[in-house]
């Protein structure tokens, strides 16, 4: 395992009494990256994250963290990992500092380094003003920060955040996303979420899991490419016939909208019809008034990928 690969997951399976929740999942997490682990509810994200965190045993497969096998050397492997579960493990009756002191001991931070580790986690997670308050009295956004502080207290090389913005208001969501980006300067991050724009906003790379299987691994740039326009809305002063539009190279189908506009479909990896469209509109006097490329949303790509998988499965 090279120094740049912090986590290596190989052929992971997890069964719950006959039901296969994670099927043959393999991936790496590299130094310095924020990896988005994206999937709908019930896809197998939490199960995978729990296995990585060492709180759930896999049915088969291997997880190595900083080159330590999670099953053979659990203590050494877990030292390299911080975990914020979907429901943060908080003690509401403790103050923030008391709770983090408890977490520092749990993580076996040497006694003479505990105070420094607590102060650093408090500062990095923006908890200074609430450090003496009871956790139970904090807002959900601050409670989530405390959850993140416990995940980083032992300076792990990778942190796993499972749905860290669920249940937060829009301002808290923005703040937590900023915090994650800040943390990524020192830690690699696995961000497990079902929120597509969250992955786009924060991550470098994305993996999509559906029904326990990884169905896509790509960079965010690659994902953007998949979102490139496959249709163009056009409006003309003197509209041509649909047949004339169909004759443009690259156009695969033409739809007429109720408001008189046309939607021209094309294929992303084939000839782009726009240049010829503009030239013909000028040459043939169609008076082009509007030309709007329509990008595929991440949702559409997600649905397309997951539906293709589902139809392939049902065909077997
Ligand atoms: N303890 C369990 N016993 C039985 N089945 C389980 C258990 N935990 C999860 N499952 C099932 O395994 C599958 C994957 O669940 P998992 O919680 O990993 O998905 P998820 O992607 O995290 O979804 P969510 O975002 O809803 O938590 C689901 O079908 C779920 O019902």
UniProtKB/TrEMBL annotation:
Residues 7-236 form the ABC transporter domain. This is ABC transporter related protein. One of its GO terms (molecular function) is ATP binding. PANTHER family: ABC TRANSPORTER, ATP-BINDING PROTEIN (PTHR43335). Pfam families: ABC_tran. It comes from Nitrosococcus watsoni (strain C-113). PROSITE patterns: ABC_TRANSPORTER_2. InterPro entries: AAA+_ATPase (IPR003593), ABC_transporter-like_ATP-bd (IPR003439), P-loop_NTPase (IPR027417). Keywords: ATP-binding, Nucleotide-binding, Transport. It comes from the Bacteria. Transmembrane segments: none annotated. Belongs to the ABC transporter superfamily.
């Amino acid at each position: 395992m090279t120094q740049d690969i912090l986590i290596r997951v190989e052929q992971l399976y997890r069964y719950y009494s006959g039901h296969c929740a994670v099927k043959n999942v393999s991936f790496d997490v590299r130094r310095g990256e924020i990896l988005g682990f994206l999937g709908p509810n019930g896809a197998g994200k939490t199960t995978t994250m729990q296995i990585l965190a060492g709180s759930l045993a896999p049915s088969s497969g291997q997880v190595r963290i900083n080159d330590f096998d999670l099953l053979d050397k659990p203590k050494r492997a877990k030292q390299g990992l911080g975990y914020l579960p979907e429901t943060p493990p908080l003690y509401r009756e403790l103050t923030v500092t008391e709770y983090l002191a408890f977490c520092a001991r749990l993580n076996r931070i040497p006694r003479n380094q505990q105070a420094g580790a607590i102060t650093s986690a408090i500062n990095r997670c923006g908890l200074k003003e609430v450090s003496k308050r009871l956790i139970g009295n904090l807002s959900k956004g601050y409670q989530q920060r405390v959850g993140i502080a416990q995940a980083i207290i032992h300076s792990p090389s990778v942190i796993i955040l499972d749905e860290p913005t669920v249940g937060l208001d829009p301002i808290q969501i923005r703040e937590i996303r900023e915090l994650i980006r800040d943390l990524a300067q020192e830690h690699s991050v696995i961000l497990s979420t079902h929120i597509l724009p969250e992955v786009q906003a924060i991550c470098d790379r994305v993996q999509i899991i559906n029904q326990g299987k990884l169905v896509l691994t790509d960079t965010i740039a690659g994902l953007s490419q998949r979102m490139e326009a496959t249709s163009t809305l056009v409006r003309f002063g003197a509209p041509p016939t649909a047949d004339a539009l169909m004759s443009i190279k690259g156009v695969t189908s033409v739809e007429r909208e109720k408001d008189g506009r046309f939607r021209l479909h094309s294929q992303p990896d084939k000839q782009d019809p726009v240049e010829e469209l503009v030239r013909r509109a000028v040459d043939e006097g169609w008076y082009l008034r509007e030309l709007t490329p329509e990008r595929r949303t991440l949702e559409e790509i997600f649905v397309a990928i997951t539906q293709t998988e589902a139809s392939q499965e049902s065909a077997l």
